[in-house]
């Protein structure tokens, strides 16, 4: 059985097909919003609080450069069993803390049941729905501001 949390090396944590499924969910979610979603996965979190690392990764990926400040990062530290969802200023304040906490609880529930791909896809879809409410897609002005691929750290 595949186990996301028992890897010893910083390698691809999903099969090629699973990666395609997750990227497809990101692309599908972004079709209805001007917002951007990225997923970053690494073995260990350098900080006690994964939100601090998510903030650092968010800046490193230059996600704050979206025009409407409406990018969201899903951060996962596999070996440390930590995760965070970090939304830029434009979306964070509109959704409120309860929304972010609910999404983290949802992905943790899926991960605890070893449903890693399903959990990520479900959260990506929820984030896409929230973004489409607050930042609907405008075919005349919107463009894909950030890559949709998964990012793997060490």
Question: Which key terms come to mind for this protein?
Answer:
alpha/beta; 5 helices; 154 residues; four-stranded mixed beta sheet; disordered N terminus; Diaminopimelate Epimerase, Chain A, domain 1; single chain
Can you walk through the features of this model?
By secondary structure, the chain is α/β, with parallel strands linked by helices. It has a single domain, classed as Roll (Diaminopimelate Epimerase, Chain A, domain 1). It contains 5 helices and 4 strands, in the order H-E-H-E-E-H-H-H-E. The two termini are 23 Å apart.
> What's the average pLDDT?
91
C-alpha Rg (nearest Å) = 15 Å
Domains, number: 1
CATH class categorisation: Alpha Beta
- Tell me, what's the shape? globular
Largest sheet: number of strands, sense, barrel closure: 4 strands, mixed
Beta strand count:
4
Q: Give the N-terminus to C-terminus distance in angstroms.
A: 23 Å
- Tell me the helix content: 40-55%
Provide the CATH architecture.
Roll
Report low-confidence residues grouped into runs of 5 or more.
Answer: 1-10
Please state the structural category: alpha/beta
Look up the CATH topology. Diaminopimelate Epimerase, Chain A, domain 1
Give, in spatial order, the strands making up the sheet with the most strands.
3-2-1-4
Strand content: 5-15%
Total helix count?
Answer: 5
From N to C, what is the helix and strand string? Answer: HEHEEHHHE
């Amino acid at each position: 059985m595949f186990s996301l949390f028992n890897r010893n090396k910083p390698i691809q944590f999903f099969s090629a097909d699973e990666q395609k499924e997750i990227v497809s969910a990101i692309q599908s979610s972004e079709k209805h919003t001007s917002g951007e979603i990225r997923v970053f996965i690494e073995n260990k979190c350098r900080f006690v609080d994964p939100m601090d690392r998510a903030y650092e990764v968010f800046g490193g990926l230059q996600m704050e450069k979206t025009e409407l400040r409406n990018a969201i990062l899903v951060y996962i530290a596999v070996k440390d069993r930590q995760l965070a969802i970090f939304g830029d200023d434009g979306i964070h304040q509109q959704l409120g803390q309860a929304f972010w906490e609910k999404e983290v609880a949802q992905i943790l529930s899926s991960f605890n049941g070893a449903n890693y791909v399903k959990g990520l896809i479900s959260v990506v879809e929820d984030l896409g729905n929230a973004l489409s409410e607050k930042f609907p897609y405008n075919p005349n002005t919107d463009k894909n501001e950030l890559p949709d691929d998964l990012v793997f750290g060490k």
